[in-house]
Amino acid sequence: MGLIIGIDVGGSTTKIVGLNDDKVISPMFINAGDPITSLFGAFGKYLYDNGVSLGDVEHVMLTGVGSSNVDTPIYGLPTSKVGEFESDGLGAKYAVKTDPIMVVSMGTGTTLVQVNGDKIVHAGGISMGGGTLQGLSRLLLKLRNVPNLVELASHGDASKVNLQIKDISKEELPGLPTFATASLFGKAVNNPVDDADVAKGLIIMVLETIGSAAVLSTLNSGINDFVLIGNMTRLPECREVFPMMEDLYGVHFHIPEHAVYLTALGAALAYRHKTS
């Protein structure tokens, strides 16, 4: 069997992986000004960097919002499309051998996909994600991209902007440890803060909101495992926020290997499932 190429086409970022006998081959991503440029740039770079010829490719599987712009086969190769939610679920299921799970796909916004055995269902989402970070960082800090925000945030302290339970109570409240956030940016009302603290607070705000929304979406469902995927899993603050939320809610957040690329991987896996 040949190489299956899975491609997650976003608005300006494309992720691409190869799948060969269920082994993930050289995941990579490309930034470009539009989906088509991003798609063909990623595909060409993938082939060149890995010494892959067109004849080595059995099938190309496309997913993501940008795939709607593609109506013809990629370089004449057999090409199909698969829904993004199915791709999210298959990629996460491949990476985390736990069932059931809620997949939390953190991109421009955030989508929630429930996986229970072979059943994959879009469970909703929230309009909070990387786009929120980009917009607020430009409006509040005059920063143009998330890497600059992350760099500034590395010098910040979110406790200077966020009001915690320990700031308003000397004792833990029922179900609320003292480290829990009582009000995002609530402390900034009266206290001076610098840009680094604001940057840190913005990232914490988006991640905490996503985490809380994910947990609340599974109440009374029996789901306690959440698989985080997408670009935002690269934020250093994920390793700070989600362990704290595990302690707060008694759940488990997974950030698997290749978390950024699991939607693209899921697209490739969809082809394997349909042909097996």
UniProtKB/TrEMBL annotation:
It is an enzyme of class 2 (transferase). It comes from the Bacteria. The keyword Kinase applies. The keyword Transferase applies. GO terms for molecular function: ATP binding; pantothenate kinase activity. One of its GO terms (cellular component) is cytosol. InterPro entries: ATPase_NBD (IPR043129), Type_II_PanK (IPR004567). One of its GO terms (biological process) is coenzyme A biosynthetic process. Keywords: ATP-binding, Coenzyme A biosynthesis, Kinase, Nucleotide-binding, Transferase. Pfam families: Fumble. Its EC number is 2.7.1.33. This is Type II pantothenate kinase. It comes from Sodaliphilus pleomorphus.
